[in-house]
Write a structure and sequence with these properties.
By secondary structure, the protein is α/β, with parallel strands linked by helices. The chain is built from ten helices and twelve strands. It has an eight-stranded mixed sheet, with helices on both faces. It has a four-stranded antiparallel sheet with strand order 2-1-4-5. The longest helix has 18 residues.
């Protein structure tokens, strides 16, 4: 199967990554065992992430979209090994993440950071804002208190807050300010990649715009790459360079942003895009998906989307479609092509 990367890639050969590549994922899986009975007998696996291969380039924003429960957040956590992958390979800057020791992994997490969805629960209410940010510096062996205090002040100002806010507690801030604090904490170790897991979904629309603009400004100044996880396609359209769509643990479409929104190929992508609200008259009719999302414990045979697809064919239930390039840098897994 041809992998969705911008260079010829031979599995297992890290040196074949492009010069600007920062992250490569190959055949990544994350299954959760399901047990039943008094003896905890295994009865199946929840296939949260099922055989995903991706590459991200330095300074790129890759939007990852899909319905709730499709595995987006699990993929993000598996990359940094907050969730241990079941199988597959992860390379960051050419280094095998899976084979890292705990000590090596701690150093890696200085270069890959996460911004969580809920700024309320991601900040310890018993710690001041300064202590929350300072904790990351302490963990990564910044010994000098004066150096750490200066760094905390610099980070707060970088995200548009006053340095004096370091002595306040999270409950003294608005939701948007708390998310800025979460971003400041993520930037403490000058990371190369930030996994942003629904970072604006809990915020008002006006505040969302402020946070997105802040993230873009930081990206331009520092050359950060973002894996931007969201279910909001309008937000993804604003911030992303490329967009990937997940359904039941698998990537079903991947394309450059403009190509993705102007020429969707997969029926699931068509349905997602048709649901975007528009004020223009004569817009495309919404595609209503039938039924509910199948259980990842027992996914459908063949194409996992065939039970809800408005363009289903007999082959869809019998054979899993190959994920392949249909146009320049545009990949999909569908029997229509």
């Amino acid at each position: 199967m041809f992998m969705p990367w911008r260079a010829i890639y031979i599995p297992g050969q890290v040196n074949s990554m492009t010069a600007s590549a920062i992250l490569k994922i190959e055949n990544l899986k994350k299954y959760y065992h399901v047990t039943a009975g008094l003896v905890a007998r295994k009865v199946g696996d929840i296939r949260a992430v099922d055989d995903i291969s991706l590459q991200m380039n330095q300074g790129e924003v890759l939007g990852l979209v899909g319905e709730s429960g499709c595995g987006k957040s699990t993929l993000g956590k598996a990359i940094i090994r907050l969730e241990e992958p079941t199988s597959g390979e992860i390379y960051f800057d050419g280094t095998d993440v899976i084979k890292m020791s705990k000590h090596e992994l701690r150093k890696l997490r200085g270069k890959i950071q996460i911004v969580f969805q809920d700024p309320d629960s991601s900040l310890d209410p018993r710690m001041t804002v300064g202590d929350s940010i300072d904790e990351a510096l302490i963990v990564h062996d910044f010994k000098n208190p004066d150096t750490r205090n200066a760094k905390v002040a610099e980070l707060l100002e970088k995200v548009g807050l006053e340095a004096g806010f370091a002595h306040r507690y999270p409950h003294e801030f608005s939701g948007g300010q708390r998310q800025r604090i979460g971003i400041a904490r993520a930037l403490a170790m000058d990371p190369k990649l930030v996994i942003a897991d629904e970072p604006v979904s809990a915020l008002d629309v006006s505040v969302q715009a402020q946070i997105l603009n802040l993230m873009m400004d930081i990206k331009e100044k520092d050359g950060l790459a973002y894996l931007f996880i969201s279910h909001d396609l309008s937000v993804v359209r604003y911030i992303s360079n490329r967009v990937a769509v997940m359904y039941l643990g698998k990537i079903v479409e991947l394309a450059e942003k403009n190509e993705f929104f102007n020429n969707p190929l997969h029926p699931y992508t068509e349905a997602l895009l048709s649901a975007i609200a528009t004020l223009r008259p004569g817009g495309k009719e919404k595609i209503l998906l039938k039924g509910d999302v199948p259980s990842p414990l027992n996914p459908p045979s063949g194409c996992r989307f065939h039970t809800r697809c408005h363009r289903v064919m007999p082959v869809c239930s019998q054979k899993e479609p190959e994920f392949k390039e249909i146009g320049p840098h545009h990949y999909t897994a569908c029997h229509l092509y």
